[in-house]
Design brief:
This protein is mostly helical. It has two domains: 60 residues; 36 residues. The protein contains three helices and no strands.
Length: 96
């Protein structure tokens, strides 16, 4: 009984998967779903811009501001380390 049910289920699943795969590749599905995805992404980007503007208007740093500041801090740290290495090199050359 179980084997018969399993075989019929597998056959149904194979035929349904083939049909569904063919249908999902259809331009009738891809066109509208692509357009809908584009609209959703544009709406999401607009909402993010509005949130960033609202935070900025309140004087709170946005994610972009924080990332920019972190980048500048990393650059400063790198320059300081380079200067320290140069100073150490100068001191060792003077002492030698």
């Amino acid at each position: 009984m179980w084997d018969m049910w399993k075989k019929s289920f597998d056959k149904w699943e194979d035929s349904t998967a083939k049909y569904l795969e063919h249908w999902m590749k259809s331009p009738l599905v891809l066109g509208p779903s692509g357009a809908m995805l584009t609209l959703v992404m544009k709406a999401r980007a607009h909402a993010q811009e509005q949130r960033a503007k609202a935070w900025g208007d309140m004087g709170v740093a946005t994610k972009r501001d924080q990332e920019r500041t972190l980048h500048m801090l990393n650059q400063l740290q790198s320059r300081i380390l380079d200067l320290e290495e140069k100073l150490d090199a100068l001191n060792t050359s003077k002492n030698a």
